[in-house]
Amino acid sequence: MEGRSHRWLALDAGFGGADGARYMSARAPAVKGAGHLVRKGTGGRSSCCFGLTRETIVAIFDSGIVATVFGATGFLGRYVVQQLAKMGSQVLVPFRGCEDSHRHLKLMGDLGQIVPMKYNPRDVNSIKTAVAKSNVVINLIGREFETRNYGFEEVNHHMAEQLAMISKEHGGIVRFIQVSALGASASSPSRLLRAKAAGEESVLKEFPEATIMRPATLIGTEDRILNRWAMYAKNWGFLPLVGGGSTKIQPVYVVDVAAAIVNSLKDDGTSMGKTYELGGPDVYTVRDLAELMFETIREWPRYVNLPFPIARAIATPRELLLNKVPFPLPTPSNFNLDQINALSVDNLVSENALTFADLEIKPHKLKGYPTEFLVSYRKGGPSFGSTVSEKMGSADVAPRF
User: Fold this and answer.
1) pLDDT digits (tens, 9 = 90+) for 303-343
2) What is the tens place of the pLDDT at every residue in 381-398?
3) pTM for the full model?
């Protein structure tokens, strides 16, 4: 066992080893109703702990999840990895950035439980290596804006199609989960959502048993909406609202979406081949959500209403110059042309769609803990503007005798 983790020994022994076939076609393929994927293990960081015999470790891994999570270094990824690790799964994390991009994930499991793997999303052999020892593949790859190197079609469509094709060829991938976006449609005014819809179609064509998740706007500590709004309001004293903020959305707590993904792996295969629309329990207009943000950071709400034509005019120059200048352009934040186009229509869960309820999850309301991270933007500190009862602990307000 010198120089090697017990976990990799378990993988080698249970799944063919380094000298075995790269693709474990002898393992059971994805079959609806084939039974529960999660069958053994106590869960938790040490459910597959060190000190066990080789045979015991192999037995644990043969009966559990070995998941390759593409896009794990992103916002949703950290919560998916955390919940997979908590239940005792082995998690492989392909990354293409620097060595620091995944270090926060390694703390979510025991030594060797979270396995970072350098890969290139344009290199087929690199992808095959990342999924070689897995029985579950989760695709969280996505990009909300285009760069000189990666466009919407490649990231949200072609990469998803390639992952599904490689996973099907693998022969041992029991579950494939494709994370798309609420509102994905071939008729959407957003190029991103059109690419997401094309990605769903291609994934189901290559891997018909795949589960599609369509989360709404994600809210959480590292989100890309409330954080940006709060920073903008703190720096400039107002917040621009595209179209007056009248668009209806159904934002959802990121932890609930991660729980939905993990719950779909725990069922007996009933979620295979199905599409779930994951929206929060409440419908907000964009202005309502901004009001919640201002209320939490305890600033007086000030808005500048931007009609859609003006907002598009502000955001268009970056799109026109993107591939015409010899240097990278700034990342769009509040003025992203594709997001502006997406806001031209309401984005809500469909009436007859499968939802959180079908995965036995009750989503959190946003007001309260899910948006508590915004207190860091209060200009006078976290207690700025607090009421007396909020400043004092329960021991202070309790009656004394």
Assistant:
1) 999 999 999 999 999 988 987 888 888 888 889 999 999 99
2) 888 876 555 555 544 444
3) 0.83
C-alpha to C-alpha distances, 233 to 251, 301, 323, nearest whole angstrom: 20, 9, 31
| Alpha-helix runs per DSSP H in 63-101 | 75-86
* Amino acid making up residue 134: S
Tokens of 319: 């799109």
Cα–Cα dist 349/283, whole Å? 10
Average pLDDT score over the chain: 85
Neighbours of 127 (CB within 10 A): 23
Q: Please give the single-letter amino acid code of residue 364.
A: H
Of 278, 80, 268, the C-alpha closest to 174 is 268
Q: Residue for token digits 């709404």? A: 216
Upper half-sphere CA count for residue 219 (Cβ side, 13 Å): 29
> Under a CB-based contact definition with an 8 Å cutoff, are residues 117 and 130 in contact?
yes
Q: Which pair of structure tokens corresponds to residue 206?
A: 């290559």
Q: How many angstroms separate the Cα of 236 from the Cα of each of 118, 241, 383?
A: 40, 14, 22
In angstroms, the CA 182 to CA 33 distance is 27
- Measured CA to CA, the distance from residue 344 to residue 251 in angstroms comes to 16
Strand, coil or helix: 304? strand
H-helix or E-strand containing 248? strand 248-249
Tokens of 32: 């609806």
How far, in Å, CA of 164 to CA of 173, rounded? 10
Give yes or no for a contact between 281 and 356, defined as CB atoms under 8 angstroms apart: no
